[in-house]
RNA sequence: UGACCUAUGGUGUAAUGGUAACACACCAGUUUUUGGUUCUGGUUUUCUAGGUUCGAGUCCUGGUAGGUCAACCA
């Protein structure tokens, strides 16, 4: 069936569509996702991943996973593995797994070619001198005294650099462009620096390493990437990207830029995330409060929910701050359809059903998910003593309180309607026990009582309950926008971003729960079994709360 | 005060010179054995001043505001 109105294209899709229509790329398109393996992927990377892989999927092309490993000081194989895991987990398959370090020889040859063409020279200046020569955005730079060395001298020097005859920082290779250029990146940018450091893949083979600007575009070109998509801060690099490809006369890949994702109530920069880890504000890169892919995974987010989120946020070139509530909506939308419902009492108080036999247990059949296409049921034991939530009882219930209070009636989910008759308190006046009578004819599914109630509450049988730990997570920061906080963001950490409830009661069937399994704790939220769980002790992470309109009503 | 990028409801994103719309959020109601879900309705939008045009959110010019760039990082 034809769609009546095709979904509008984003600006990148339009570019690809136009390029394909004009016959520019007869072999189809090829994109790439090029992380530097020096840290863990976060939700901002997910946007880029969905964009790159999504573009290729939509227009019948491929996507390379390229590790941009030109700086051996910061890169490690450990990160390569985590990145591959995260991309796969998100549901994408790359056409080729490639490494910029695979192109070191090609890049070296490119560099010699530019030297031969008098487009590059070896500079003996120190880093400080080069910085001083560079000028400022409003004042032109000065030519380096080494700028006019002969091709032969440059070639010899560069070969000596490669051969390891110089120490780190002694010399660099620079492109000869224009020290007065309005674009700072065109003021004789560095192409190679000396680093006597072991590389995670090439080992000690090289002691000179290409800079990003001399590696990225050429890598794109070598792979014949048609559309090289990156974030806006690389916009000013594009003239240089094009300059190198043009002077080298190699495959003309094209770079396009989009605005990176900013998410409210969190930070996204690698440096700040690292700070959170190092200062032990969080337990690690996969702490469920982190916006990392591994953190979101542990928190209970599904790949589909993240892909859907990336689809919904769209893509453009203006700065943006996406509200966390959209991410929450996406995971609720997914889990509402897929997560089984179970009962867990987080803040327990005992409910005694005084007219139910103390020696009796019933195994009630309760549906797992009312939203599922095929309804399945599970068995839940019911007895005369139950745990219910403390806030499901009030001594002086206000109007529209559809829960328990003396004289009020509720249905116990999947069981009977009960009428609250009494309660007990301790010396301090705290409620310790609630008493109720059940209506035998009101059994769920075969109710002939004729009684109708407004409220339904969840419960767990005291005798059968399983103990568990619950970790309730909330937004990392108490401020929406951390962009102008700088390092002060640490002062705005939400003190309630993690609340551990060491002892909750859950229904006994949860003993069979599997790590990562998503569950809805009825009326409480979506939870997922954490890896910290043991046979004796289950640990559940709260992925997200349910929407709570009663809380809003109460607040009024 | 140089170059470049950007400006549409509270937040995002569409509208490709021809009725400003979709989602989230928010509000009201509906449904509901989850105060969840569903469904319905509602509030709230083109930075500014000129210009081109029969017609401008869209094109042009100026202004304003925000962002990016001066690592031997990527």
Describe, in plain words, how this protein is organized in 3D:
The chain is of the alpha/beta class and 556 residues long. Helix content is 26%, strand content 23%. The protein has a seven-stranded mixed β-sheet, covered by helices on one side. α7 crosses α8. The chain starts with 10 loop residues before the first helix and ends with a helix. Mean pLDDT is 96; it is low at 1-5. It binds one RNA strand of 74 nucleotides through α5, β6, α7, α12 and β19.
What attributes does this structure have?
556 residues, alpha/beta, seven-stranded mixed β-sheet, 13 helices, 26% helix, RNA-binding
In short:
By secondary structure, the protein is of the alpha/beta class. The protein contains 13 helices and 25 strands.
* Structural class assignment: alpha/beta
* Strands, count: 25
Give the N-terminus to C-terminus distance in angstroms: 49 Å
Q: Which quaternary structure do these chains form? A: single chain
The residue-averaged pLDDT reads 96
Strand fraction band?
Answer: 15-25%
Residues in helices, as a percent range: 25-40%
Low-confidence stretches: 1-5
The number of helical segments is 13
Overall 3D shape: elongated
CA radius of gyration: 31 Å
Give a short account of the largest sheet: 7 strands, mixed
**Strand ordering within the main sheet:** 10-23-24-25-21-22-11
